[in-house]
Amino acid sequence: MASSGPTSSSAREQLVAAAEELYAARGIDGVSLREINAAAGARNASALQYHFGDRAGLLRAVLAKHRAGVEARRHALLDAVEADGDADLRALAAALVLPLAAELDEPGGPGYLQVLSDLANRPHPAVDPASLDDPIDSTYRWRAAVEPLLSTDAVVLHRRFVAIRFTLAELARRTRDRRGTTDAVFVSDLVDLVTGLLSAPVSTETKAAADARRRARSAAGD
Question: 138-146 and 89-101 are packed helices; what angle lies between their axes, rounded to 10 degrees?
Fold first, then answer.
């Protein structure tokens, strides 16, 4: 006799889909686990805890659902940059932006982008938004490719991570403001902006402020 209830895997998928939809509209902090349970049609109030353990477990599930696609797209773009043999900042900016921007039209993608942005732009994220120390991760590979094209001062100021956070913030904003019939202009402009962010010279004023901060930290450590 067939079961009248959802299978364990479908229940899990429904919870992830409900979380993606609510996160896309209201962000991580604007949604309770109870609301996600209700939106997924879960009859058991503890269904989410059963499948994911806690909020961090649910966030990891949302990230895992989309990660393989983003990774494949970015590695393909980085392969093309390497094959061309003449890396430039715009091509590398595109390798950062385009794999993520493709999620605007993927099922659950807007929620995924909102989760990434929320995590990347908070002091202590519940889940690390990027495996920055994993050599096989496309973000690690991207950062390594960009570094030789930046000044020493730009590297010290973590321009690459700033570019990642800016990209995610803009894409998350776009998920809430899908004007027009295409994202082509928005995405191309975002690549331009990330290129500009990476290539902007470090001013004399910023260098002086960074030097003062370095001296203060050194003195505090003595």
Answer: 160
